[in-house]
Design goal:
Length: 570
């Protein structure tokens, strides 16, 4: 929202600012029609209404000590004031007055805030602030060090053809770690103020593997674009498809679908152009082109790697906190950039790894890099993992396998309960750019890093999942914890023998209500700090349940009638 002070800004510049920036907040009061002083106000009113009609911008009228019907019907003081303006007016001025009257009539029809003489103005002001905050698009976090962003955004914006009235879908594709999410986040910040209804769906591939995850994204899309959070609840995916088509087909929206790899999920979120109103723009990111082509997007923007000069600048911004290499590090920096093949994520991670290290350490790290058999990003990032101490590695693996997207404060308590120095370890991972903490305190990690960590755990014992330190795949868990590898698709039974050897179990997450337990089920571990169990089937926790290390306990949709058969061990 922008405020315009009379006499300080031309009509043309204020109109331009309204089109590109503002949420018009119109205050109507009787003094606005005082001759001479009122002309500027009336011209601004015309601009506001034009923005509303031409660009579907929201206008919030405030009727200050004046009845909206007086404004709408132009009675009493408004009638008198317009009569004064019309006195001795030539045809040009009469044309202006007709536009003023039309704009005022339209403003009087809008729903707004009626501030009467005896109103509590402070309460109304709070209501106005709340509505404005709910209308202005959020600003997303974006890496400020990215080099060459302006040229990428300029090309993307041109392909979006925002001024055209049709619905347009644009795909953004490229390698993992190439910067797709960073680019579209910056794009969102640049153009979202031109749309009244926006939605940014992140981590779609990872979080929509099950129908419940896809349903969550359908719900978010409707909540974001309609501004009715909590008023519409979806229960089935086909219901979500119908609601999206029905509710958004006449609405101009800006939607981002980040990181999607399945045509079915894409069809159920942003299926066709006809699902959305005129002027809508849909941006989809994907690692490969095939899905985008099959979805018939209007344009595919392939994110390529920066040239060597820009890649060097990006690397130096992390390794030296400046755009050029430090003295004596020029050749070494170029070697790192070439080894990383100019991939932004690898440059960011390796630059953070080498920050404040001496030439000898740089040469040692580069020697390690030469021993990596190929240029796959997971192998590049493994170098950064090898530089962590034992505790940092344990925390990093836990994040990848269990706590990606979890709240950092809860995870910190869980890790501290396991004897790790959580704060120190998390800070080390953030400093090396291996993880980030979002503004809402969630742990975030790039997909390639998470895949690398899981590969590390897998290689602990490739042929025997029960000997690995962490399990997260459904089939591996079935193999270790159930009878005969897996039972029927309708029921999974965990056995006493399966848990008997797990004397150091720290984290257990069961999010499957098909799991059934035998009555002799026990928890032998004294180290359990995190227990999340959806659909716990027994009537009580085991009698030998050790709670002395427990930090987080969440039993959802359970059959518990009493906490335990006897006093818990604590």
């Amino acid at each position: 929202m922008k405020a315009f002070e009379r006499g300080k800004r031309s009509h043309q510049s204020s109109y331009k600012l309204l089109k590109n920036q503002g949420l018009p907040l119109l205050c109507s009061q009787k003094t606005m029609l005082i001759p001479n002083a009122s002309k500027w106000c009336l011209e601004e009113l015309v601009k506001f209404i034009n923005c509303k009609e031409e660009r579907e911008q929201k206008v919030i009228p405030i009727f200050y000590h004046v009845d909206p019907s007086e404004v709408r019907n132009q009675r009493e003081i408004y009638k008198i004031a317009f009569s004064r303006h019309e006195k001795n007016a030539d045809e040009e001025k009469r044309g202006k007055i007709r536009r003023w009257k039309t704009a005022m009539r339209e403003a009087g029809k809008l729903a707004g805030y009626d501030v009467k003489v005896d109103s509590y103005e402070s309460e109304i002001i709070q209501d106005i602030i709340k509505e404005i905050c709910g209308t202005i698009p959020m600003v997303l976090d974006v890496d400020e060090k990215i080099v060459g962003m302006d040229s990428r955004l300029e090309k993307l914006v041109s392909r979006l053809e925002i001024q055209s009235n049709g619905v347009r879908m644009v795909g953004v594709c490229g390698l993992g770690g190439i910067g797709k999410t960073t680019i579209i986040t910056a794009l969102y910040n640049k153009i979202s103020n031109q749309f009244r209804s926006t939605s940014f769906l992140t981590n779609v591939r990872e979080e929509s593997t099950k129908d419940s995850g896809l349903l969550k994204f359908q719900q978010q899309l409707l909540d974001d674009t309609l501004g009715v959070k909590g008023q519409l609840t979806l229960k089935k995916i086909h219901e979500g498809v119908k609601e999206i088509k029905d509710k958004l087909s006449s609405k101009k929206v800006l939607v981002f679908v980040d990181d999607i790899d399945d045509s079915r999920r894409l069809e159920h979120l942003v299926g066709k152009h006809s699902w959305f109103g005129h002027g809508s723009r849909i941006i989809i990111t994907r690692r490969k082109k095939d899905l985008l082509k099959a979805h018939e997007v209007d344009y595919i923007y392939e994110v390529d790697k920066s040239n060597e000069v820009k890649a060097l600048q990006l690397f130096c911004s992390y390794a030296f906190r400046q755009c050029l290499p430090g003295k004596g590090y020029g050749d070494l920096s170029i070697q790192v950039v070439r080894y990383a093949d100019r991939l932004p994520l690898a440059l960011k991670v390796l630059g953070s790894l080498l920050f404040r290290k001496g030439v000898k350490d740089w040469k040692s790290e580069l020697k390690k890099l030469q021993e990596v058999p190929n240029m796959e990003i997971t192998n590049v990032l493994k170098i950064s993992y090898d530089g962590l101490d034992h505790t940092q590695k344990m925390i990093f693996l836990d994040f990848a396998c269990f706590f990606k997207g979890a709240h950092v404060e809860i995870v910190t308590q869980v890790l501290d309960g396991s004897g790790f120095k959580a704060e120190s370890g998390i800070n080390a991972l953030v400093d090396r750019c291996l993880i980030t903490i979002s503004t809402n305190k969630k742990i975030e990690m790039h997909d390639s890093l998470a895949q690398m960590d899981k590969e590390i755990v897998y290689k602990e014992c490739p042929n025997e999942s029960g000997e690995r330190s962490r399990l997260w795949k459904h089939e591996d868990i079935c193999r270790v914890l159930t009878i005969n590898t897996c039972t029927s698709e309708h029921e999974i039974k965990f056995t006493f023998e399966a848990f008997k050897r797990m004397t150091r179990l720290r984290v257990l997450i069961v999010n499957n209500n098909k799991v059934q337990l035998f009555e002799d089920f026990t928890f032998p571990s004294h180290d359990l700090t995190y227990l999340y169990w959806a659909g716990y089937s027994l009537a009580s926790l085991p009698s030998n349940f050790h709670a002395n290390s427990l930090v987080f306990l969440y039993l959802k949709d359970n059959n518990i009638k009493r906490l335990s058969e006897r006093k818990l061990v604590s």
